[in-house]
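Chain A, query sequence.
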Amino acid sequence: MRRRRSFIILLICSFTGGFLAAQDSAEFSEDSISKMLSQWHAIPGAEVTSVGLGAGARGLDEVPGALHVIRPAELERYAYTDPLRVLRSVSGVNIQEEDGFGLRPNIGLRGSGSDRSARITLMEDGVLIAPAPYSAPAAYYFPSIARMESVEVLKGSSQIAFGPQTAGGAINLVTPQAAGPSGILFRSERSSFGGHLRHLRLRQEWQTNRGTWSSLVEAIQLGSDGFKSLPNADPTGFTKTDGMVKIRWEASKDARFNQSIEVKGGWVQELSHETYAGLAEADFVQNPFQRYAASSNDLMESKHRQMTLRHEAELTARWSVRTDVYRMRFHRNWYKLDRYRDASGNSQSLLSLYESGQTAVLQEPTALDALLQLKANNRDYLAQGIQHRGVIKGQSGNQLVYGLRVHEDEVDRFEWRDGYQLTDGRMRMVQPGEQGSAGNRLDGARALAGYVRGTIRLSNWTLTPGIRTEQMEFFRLDYGADNGSREEEPASRRTNQVSVWLPGLGVNYSLSEEAQLFAGVHRGFIPPGSAPGTQSETSVNTELGYRWSSRRFNGQVVAFYNSYNHLMGSDLTANGGVGTGDLFNGGSARTHGVECEVALDLLASSDTWSAPLRLTYTYTDARFTSDFESDFGPWDAVKDGDFLPYLAPHQGNAQISLVTGRWSGELSYRYVAAMRTMAGRASIDLVEATDVASIFDAVIRREFGSNFSAYAGVNNVFDAVVVVARRPAGLRPAMPRLFRVGMRWSM
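Chain A, predicted structure.
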C-alpha cells in the first residue's frame, strides 16, 4: 500500500511537469535527505537548535506552510560560497543571477518578484538583516553563506510570524551556535580566476558554579580576481572579510530558571569591482566575458556592523520566552557608470545607450566636451529594535506562539556624479561633482508589529490560526541638490502612516504516521513607503500540499495560488530604473504553480554503497490581471493576461551522490527556462529574454580520518555560456567553468 501511494504521487508530479524535493515529517528541523546523508563518513550533521522559522514547533504539523531546512551536512556537500547555488535545490525559489558570485542576490518565492530580494523577509538568526527592512528593503547586503550552519526557507501561511514583507515568504540564515564542545575548524579553498577562501572557527566552553560559558569566534576571507576582463587589465573581482563573535552564558541546572544570555557581534567588509554595464548583443557573441573600458572605475565599497543581545528563558514548564535587542549599521558606496552627456549637454541614461545602440561611447575615446558620468551611490543605513517571542504550551499538544517587535530604520542618501573622459583606455576625471547634488535625503520608518498564532490539535487534525498586525510610519526629509551641508531646513517633508491586519490559517491532517495533507491561506502585505499616494500591496496567498516520509522515500507536492492587488514596484537602478528607490503601484496580478520534491536512496539495499537522489521541480505561471501604464521599463504598457518579467515558468534541480567508504562523489544539475525581460504574452522574443540555463556541477570528496577531508569540484562542468540577465543595462553572463580544490580540518 505504501509503495502504491508513493508511486501515485510521483506519477502526479510527472504529469504536472515535475520532479520532487522534500521534508521529513518526523522533525521540523530536518529535511528528507538527512537520513541518507547520515550514511556519509566523517561529515558532521551537527544538531541545530532552530532560532527562526520553526521555533516553538515540535513537528511539521505545527508549521502551517511549506518549510524547507538545508542542514549542515547538505551545505558541506558542495561547499558553495554562492547563496544562489545553495538555494537552487529548494522548490518555489525564484532566482535571477547577476554578478556570478551571488554578492547581492535577487531572490523571490512563489513568483513574488526577485528584485534585490526586497519582496521577501530576510533574517539572520531570526533577526531582520536587510539594511533597512521597512524603509529600503533592497538587499544590497547579504550574509556570507559559507559561515552558515543551516538555511530555513518558509513559504505559506507561517509568514504570519514574520514581516514586514509577507507576500512571498521568508529566509532565515542560521549561524553556528556558541554552545557546544570546544574545538577548532579550519577550511581552505582555491579556485579558478584567483578564487580563494579561508575560514576559521574557534569554539570554547567552560563550566563555573553559576553556569556554563561558551564563546565562538569566526572569520572568513574570500575573494576572486574575477572572470571578466577589461581592456586595461584592471581587476573585475572582489574581496570580502566576514567576522563574528558570540559569547553565551547558560544558567546551571539547579538554577531557579533555565535561561541563557548571548551577545553576538558581526562585521563585514567588501570591495567588489562590479558594474551595471553589461554588453551589447554583438559584443556578447564576440566575447561574453569582456567589459567595456568605461566601466573600469566601477567599485562597490561596503561595511556592515551588527550587534545583538539575546535572552532566552523557561519561565515555567509551559512558558518559554526569547527577547532580542539588535542594532545594525551598513554603509555602501557603489561608484559606477551612470549616464553619458554629449557635447550639447544632453544626458542619456546607461540603459538608453544600450537601447539606442550607442555603446561605442563606452569603448572609444570620449568626444571633446562630452562626459561619462559616474554616480557615487553613497548611502548609510541604520536598523535597530527589540523583539520578543513567547511559546505557551497547553494540554494535548496545543500551544500559543506570540510575538512583538518595536523597530526603526533609515537610509541616508548623499550622492553625487563625477565627470570622466575615456582616453587611451583609461578613465580620467575632468569634472568632480558636488556632494549631495545627485541625491540628498533621509528616508526612515518606525514600526510596531505583533502576532499571535495558535496550534490546536483535534485527533488527526491540527489547526494553526493566527493574525499579524503592522503599525508603521514612514517619512522622508529631502534636503535638495543645493544643500550639501544640510545647514538649511529640508526642502520638502512627507510622511505616510500605514496600519494593517493580516490573518491566516493553516490546516494539517495526518493520514498516517508517514503521510500528511496540509493547506493554508493568509493575507500578504508589502509596505508602501513614504509617498502618501502609494497604496500598500495586499494579496491572498493559498496553498494545498501533500507530504510523505518513509525510510527510503520522502517527498512533497504543493499547489499554490497567490492573488495580488496594488502590485508594488520599486525604482532601482538594479532593475533598469532611475535609482530613486521610490515605490509605486502597478495593477493587479496572480501567480499559481506547483512545487514537487522527492528524495530517495537508489542503493538502499546495499550495506557498502549508497546513492542518495534528490529531485525538485517548480512550475510558475505569473500574469497581470489588469491593464495599466507604467514608467517602469520591464512593465511599460501592461495588458490583462501579460506574463510578469524575470520569472522562469519551469525550474528543475537534480542531485545524486555515490558514497562508499571514505569516498563520495556528487553530481548536480539545474535547469531554468528562459525568462522574458519585458511584460507580454506573445512567444518569448530571444532579444528580450534570458537564455535557457542547463548547468552541471560536480565534486568528489575524500575523508582522511575523522578530522580531515579534502575535495575537488567543478562548477559549470560543460562551460555553458548563458545570458542570465539583460538588466539593468546590457547582457550579463553566468560564471564560466570553474575548478576548485579545498580541505577541511577540525579537532
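The chain has six helices and 38 strands. Helices lie at 2-15, 34-37, 72-78, 83-87, 281-286, 350-355.
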